[in-house]
């Protein structure tokens, strides 16, 4: 009974931590997007938004739902103390995510001029090419976040998200200002959008660097776990691939419709073309709900604090 209560408290605590980090990341995003939009202008803002639509679609094809899939598979293996199989699944998942992310990165990078000609978005090539390496970085980072989530802690995921957003905000504003300053009239829209996408890339790299640091620090504990392995069967590469495919397909099927609606924002993509009017573009500088997100952040912070205090009081009483 005590273990169930402890697990329930830990679940609430970890969920609250992740929710608070997500809200804080959202608040940071709302704070930096307005000045960035003011710097790059409406046309660059339209290119920036459309580049992100293509980037989001590329992520779906390459590494969508990978954190959840890895977390579910590893949690089951670790619960049965099959540490060798669990770490083997993690290595294969990391290899798959890296390969898929690299391939999709190369496709977007080299196809960027063709995408620009096909869509008619003049200047789209530059921000797309700057943003394309982020696909690879996010694929690797997502797999590592899934590993830490399988260890029943959301702190690495939460902190890496905040680190990523802080670097994203700082670099986006500075790079947007710098790129617009050194641009010419003919390429100003593309350069301004590229400044914003560069911030996304640098933020993703910063988040991944933090996760790698934590993973290196965790490796001695991994070796201890391996000495207590109780697996009676070593999963083959074919079995691991089958498990990853099934789990990933299940998570994509469960989440894709709602996430796709959220990513598109209910906008008709045909109306997002630069030059059709600023009001028809996805607005990256919308801060109308800033107060709401700050309130949610405070509420989640209070939930984390309350859960921690209650947990400590129960331990003292016992």
Describe this protein's structure:
The chain is mostly helical. Helices cover 82% and strands 0% of the residues. It has 9 helices and no strands. α3 packs antiparallel against α5 and α6 runs antiparallel to α7. The protein is elongated, with a radius of gyration of 22 Å. The protein starts with a helix and ends with a helix. Residues 256-290 have low confidence and may be disordered.
What share of the residues lie within helices? Answer: over 70%
SS elements, strand count: 0
The stretches of 5 or more residues where confidence is low (pLDDT under 50) are 256-290
* Overall pLDDT level: 78
Helix-strand category = mainly alpha
Could you spell the SSE succession in H and E letters?
HHHHHHHHH
Can you count the helices?
9
* Major pleated sheet: none
Q: Compute the gyration radius: what is it?
A: 22 Å
What fraction of residues sit in β-strands? under 5%
First-residue to last-residue Cα separation: 13 Å
- What is the approximate shape? elongated
Secondary-structure blueprint:
Elements lengths: L1 H62 L2 H14 L3 H37 L5 H7 L1 H18 L4 H28 L5 H39 L10 H28 L25 H28 L1
Question: Which features would summarize this protein structure in a list?
Answer:
9 helices, mainly alpha, single chain, 318 residues
Quick recap of the structure?
This protein has 318 residues and is mainly α. The protein has helices at 2-63, 66-79, 83-119, 125-131, 133-150, 155-182, 188-226, 237-264, 290-317.
């Amino acid at each position: 009974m005590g273990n169930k209560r402890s697990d329930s408290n830990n679940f609430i605590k970890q969920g609250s931590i992740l929710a608070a980090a997500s809200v804080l990341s959202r608040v940071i995003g709302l704070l930096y997007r307005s000045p960035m939009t003011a710097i790059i202008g409406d046309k660059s803002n339209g290119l920036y938004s459309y580049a992100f639509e293509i980037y989001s679609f590329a992520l779906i094809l390459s590494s969508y739902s990978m954190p959840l899939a890895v977390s579910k598979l590893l949690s089951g293996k670790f619960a049965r103390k099959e540490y060798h199989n669990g770490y083997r699944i993690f290595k294969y998942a990391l290899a798959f995510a890296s390969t898929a992310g690299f391939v999709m990165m190369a496709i977007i990078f080299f196809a960027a001029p063709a995408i620009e000609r096909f869509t008619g978005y003049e200047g789209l090539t530059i921000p797309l090419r700057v943003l394309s390496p982020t696909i690879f970085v996010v694929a690797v980072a997502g797999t590592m976040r899934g590993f830490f989530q399988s260890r029943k802690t959301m702190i690495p995921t939460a902190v890496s998200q905040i680190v990523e957003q802080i670097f994203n905000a700082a670099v986006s504003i500075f790079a947007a200002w710098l790129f617009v300053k050194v641009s010419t009239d003919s390429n100003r829209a593309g350069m301004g959008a590229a400044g914003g996408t560069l911030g996304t890339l640098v933020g993703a790299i910063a988040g991944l660097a933090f996760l790698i640091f934590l993973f290196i620090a965790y490796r001695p504990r991994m070796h201890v776990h391996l000495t207590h392995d109780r697996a009676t069967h070593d999963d083959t590469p074919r079995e691991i691939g089958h498990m990853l495919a099934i789990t990933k397909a299940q998570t994509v099927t469960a989440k894709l419709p709602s996430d796709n609606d959220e990513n598109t924002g209910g906008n008709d993509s045909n109306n997002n073309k630069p030059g059709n009017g600023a009001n028809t573009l996805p607005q990256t500088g919308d801060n109308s709900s800033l107060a709401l997100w700050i309130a949610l952040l405070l509420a989640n912070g209070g939930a984390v604090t309350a859960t921690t205090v209650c947990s400590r009081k129960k331990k003292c009483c016992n």
